[in-house]
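Quick one:
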Amino acid sequence: MALFETASFRRFRRRKAVRQNERSALAKSTQSDLSRLVRTSDPAVRKAFDVEMQSFSKLHARYLTEKENRKELDWNRIKSPSDKQVIPYSQLPQITGPEALSKLAVLKVNGGLGTSMGMSGAKSALEVKDGMTFLDLIVQQVEHLNTTHKVDVPLILMTSFNTHDDTLRIIKKYVSQRISITTFNQSRYPRIWKETLQPCPKHALDDKKHWYPPGHGDLYESLVHSGVLDRLLAEGKEYLFVSNSDNLGAVVDQRILQHMIDSDAEFLMEVTDKTKADVKGGTLIEYDSSMRLLEIAQVPPDHVDDFKSVRKFKIFNTNNLWINLKALKRIMNGGGMDLDIIVNPKMSENGQAVLQLETAAGGAIKHFNNAHGISVPRSRFLPVKSCSDLLLIRSDIYSLKNGRLDMSESRMFGSVPVIKLGDHFKKITDFQPRFKKIPNIIDLDHLTVTGDVHFGRGVTLRGTVIVVANEGQRIDIPDGCVLENRLVSGNLNMTEL
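Output:
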């Protein structure tokens, strides 16, 4: 028996040695490919491009190691955060003055194209309310903050190679306003072929389809490489509020900032209660006595339903993050962060499988001291990811004041209606012509629309409204029509619900 175990152990060691040799050879081959890419780059930007490729090389090598070891989270060691690890917003201190704002900077993640809504340019350039774009609203918010409190909170936009030029063009119109705007480009990483795990591009100037922005977890390295982190510290800024540019609820909150200062927290993550619409959102967990962000891509297949359950995981990450800049500098000088790798599978235009190795900004929580969550009201999470979201934002449920959205006092409930628009409304170019004017939905609970449906002016929707146009049919909701608890189908056949 002992001889059998010894022989078995030797075979195991040989197989492991073979895998290690294969991994080492693949890593060297990838490094060679990346060095060649650097040599093909424009000499004017070669140094910065080389830094990016070195960062990608480390990420790629770590991916190969983790893939070989197949190390998964031990589901039995996952715990829900304690009351001390997630603080209710209601327990935060009241504000007595604006002094803390002088140490704050605001950063918006602005690298998205809005492809889910059929857009090809920077998503932040989309008009979302009263003719104003995401960027217009963000600038108004920060400018109002500065004017009201006589402070100088700078706005920083982290763009991607997909949105950088659009963003630079757009922000020119803000030069005369009371706000300092800085832009910097996040990294550009090469996609890798799924079969060979080797980089797709052969030249630094290869088509955009071979490259990708590696998720908002790239924020930390890009802040360092761009010089923005050092500049903020030199200007006396100590805290950074980070959020997605398409989250219209993510405005500066002085109570959260003051809590960060009072509690000596180096990192805060805003979380909010999970609903059925948020089951895929990342959540905060306790793992091996530390706070961790758990994303659905990291969940073992047989535990995906557990992850989506509201019973076990009651909160999710809004991606509104508060970061101590001095602590960030210390961590990056000490070797940086090993953020959990999220493997994002894609298909190339010619049908070949490729992979994007990405990271999430919230994953950094495990690297900071006294990091914890803040359970915030749902109003601080108001993203626009689809045309259904856009209909809600453009409706009479919300009004604009100094760049921020306020829910109408006429709305009887604090929650917003559920809106589900079908494929005919999926793209922004299809969505807009279908409404002569956005309907009045102040008393709406639920709206489902499928098929070729058009809305006239002055339409009012109340309660539960379902409109279904079958294949080959078209439904026109006439001007001034009031639909309350109605199912509309066929040629304006109405059934009371």
